Amino acid sequence: MNPRRLAAQAWPLLQVALAVTLAWLMANLLHGQENPFFAPIAAAVALSAPRGERGLQAVRLLMGVLVGIATGEVIGASMGVGYGGLAIATFVAMALATGIGGARTVITQAASSAILTTIAAAGEAGVHRLADALIGGGVALIFSQVVFSPEPVALLRRAETDALSRIARGLELTADALGREDERLGDQAVEKLRALRDPLGELARLRTVSKRVARHSAVWRSQVDAVVREQEHADHLDLVASGSVMLARMAVEAKPPGRALLATRIRELSTVIAALAEAPGDRSTRQRAAHQALEAGRPVEADAAPDQTSVVTVAVLRIVARDVMVFAGLTIDQAEAAMRAGEAEADVPAPPATPRVPFGFDQRRRERPLSSELPRRESDTPDGHPKE
């Protein structure tokens, strides 16, 4: 059991438990069916989707149930209850769900609803299932779109913090490997940075999800412009991550005379990225990061370069530093001009704010970074701080 992961998921799980209970109570009160088990199941299925996709999951569930029940009723009335009718109803329901662009949830619910409707006498199971689905799905929509609706910019920020923290750790490990001249540690650093595929994939998912939340949530429609602005910053994390992988690979292959220089520069860049991870939505933090990234990416004097590999590696580091400056808020033209001039004259614009979540119910998780769920580094002490 992972206590950190459990703690991070405790609040969403509590929301599911509340929705399940409410759906069951409402189903009992509204249509009086004995043991209306599908209403709480529908609420649980809808809210089991990742944050930002729970409302869509509820809609998909309702679509699948409607398609399946309608198909089961028609096939059952025309062919009766039997093996043939069951097979045809299931196939037709799944085909219709697929034809309307249904996701896996739509197809699964269409099939199961068609099965229940076809084999149940007089279609009563289908009618009850539809009523339960409407109750459970309705509760899930209220929870996901109103009461516990995730703030879309905060969704992006948490994913940014996760990716930035991992990049900073990978670069710090690279600097450690260079300082100790430890090839095994260098290989670990490269692998750690290559493992960024998962957090970057999650960030890509949330770039799409956050815009959908802003457009369709009952409480966050005013956040569409803010989400688009934050997405423009988040797009550059892909470049920062890919550049960091290349930087680590080249650095660990550098000759010993140049490793001290590279270790210093990479550690400086790691510190900048780690600071950004702590507060990606703070303007002053972004402003400092832009200036410090510029300093970390300063060119190497010709007489200070021990070998050509080090010069090329510093050139890659400068590209990563430029992308960090763009993520912080500068335009590409401003970042490149600062690199050429050796100083940044432009101010970083204020990043989009993350307003308070309505009703305050989700405030506790609004700014909680995903990095708190990550395992400690090999060099960390039990309390999570680096060893001396």
Task: Please give a structural write-up.
With 388 residues, the chain is an all-alpha fold. It has two domains: 3-147, no CATH class; 152-352 and 359-372, Up-down Bundle (Methane Monooxygenase Hydroxylase, Chain G, domain 1), CATH 1.20.58. It is 72% helix and 0% strand. The protein contains 14 helices and no strands. It has helices at residues 3-31, 38-47, 54-79, 83-99, 104-119, 124-147, 152-180, 183-194, 197-216, 224-252, 256-278, 283-296, 308-328, 332-341. The radius of gyration is 27 Å and the shape is elongated. The relative contact order is 0.10. The model is unreliable at 359-388 (pLDDT under 50).
Total of domains: 2
Structural class call reads: mainly alpha
Count of DSSP strands: 0
Q: What is the strand content? A: under 5%
Q: What is the radius of gyration? A: 27 Å
Cα-to-Cα separation, first versus last residue:
29 Å
Order of helices and strands: HHHHHHHHHHHHHH
